[in-house]
Amino acid sequence: YCLVLVNGLSYYEEASDPLIVKTSKGLVRGITLTAATGKQVDTFLGIPYAKPPVREYRFRHPKPIDRWEGVFNATKLPNSCVQTLDEFFGDFRGSTMWNANTKLDEDCLKLNIWVPKPRPKDAAVLLWIYGGGFATGTSTLEIYDGKILAQAILQSGGPTCPWAMIDREEAKQRSLQLAKAVDCPHDSQNLDATMDCLRRKDAKELVEKEFVLKRNKSNVVDFIFVPIEDGVFFDESPENSLLRKNFKKTKIMTGCNSEEGFFFSVYHLSSLLNASTEDVYV
Q: Average model confidence (pLDDT) for the chain?
């Protein structure tokens, strides 16, 4: 749905405000921001691209949003999705800089758009999803400020990482483990009861229990709920896509760091460290 919204974005020439844009779902008002370099960009923050995944919409495919009346005010950073915050190193800026900096809420299916100023007639659109292993992260972090973004370099993980995707059966088993952890029915023969219970649970409780399951995993880098080959969004595995060359041909720069992933080992070897008193260099 976010692609449809982006492609349907055009300047609303009849409006007196040049920052009012017409989308396929309604009018949107943006704001002009200035980067540290002095360059100005037109910015549209927190545009919804699907209905909030709450109550009966939780754990389902996203539902298209309805058209809205009036002008949507897209001038403030949106909510961050519900997640745990990193408190392992206390107030150490090197870790807290990755913590969500806006309200945690399930109503977080929002899109931020940055447009060069003056706006070019023909320009490529970069669709970017923030990192965090599908467990943490937010588009609102200072280091993700789109007004200073020029190009992208791919590094630190990819779709073929061993933790990046799981099959449907593994996803079901992990979901049943979570259901058990929050005292929901967890019989694989009665998944409707399981889902009904999970949809009534508080989102914070689900995230906290998910984190406990994650910490019980033995791998240094492992995430519990990640994308699956569902036949809807992913119709085949990334490995098969690479083998069949079924992907967009474009110029990229990619690579890895010499100590790729080493940072995460600190969290799994905490028994060997006194993080409150020792200096740890990674």
A: 83
User: Structural domain boundaries of the chain?
Assistant: 2-148, 168-246+252-258
What is the number of other CB atoms lying within 10 angstroms of the CB of residue 138? Answer: 22
260: Cβ contacts below 8 Å, ≥ 6 apart:
156
Structure tokens at 138: 């937010």
**Residue that the structure tokens 């005292």 belong to:** 183
Highest mean pLDDT among 3-17, 131-145, 243-257: 131-145
The residue to which tokens 């745990």 are assigned:
84
Q: Which two tokens stand for residue 180?
A: 């058990």
Q: What angle do CA 57, 174, 269 make, to 5 degrees?
A: 120
CA distance 50 to 46: 12
The position carrying tokens 């998944």 is 191
The pair of structure tokens assigned to 207 is 């995230």
Residue 234, φ and ψ in degrees, nearest 5: -105, 110
Q: What DSSP assignment string belongs to 63-108?
A: PPPPP-SSEEE--S--PBPS-----TTTT-HHHHTTS--S-B-S--
Q: Give the up-direction half-sphere exposure of residue 282: CA atoms within 13 A in the CB hemisphere.
A: 16
C-alpha to C-alpha distance for 60 and 51, rounded to whole angstroms: 11
Residue 201 tokens read as 């649970």
On whether the CB atoms of residues 177 and 213 are closer than 8 A, the answer is yes
| Total Cβ atoms within 10 A of residue 218 | 6
> What is the per-residue pLDDT across 50-91, written as a single tens digit (0 to 9) for each?
999 999 999 999 999 999 999 999 999 999 999 999 888 888
The pTM for the full model equals 0.80
Say which amino acid occupies 2. Answer: C
pLDDT at 14: 44
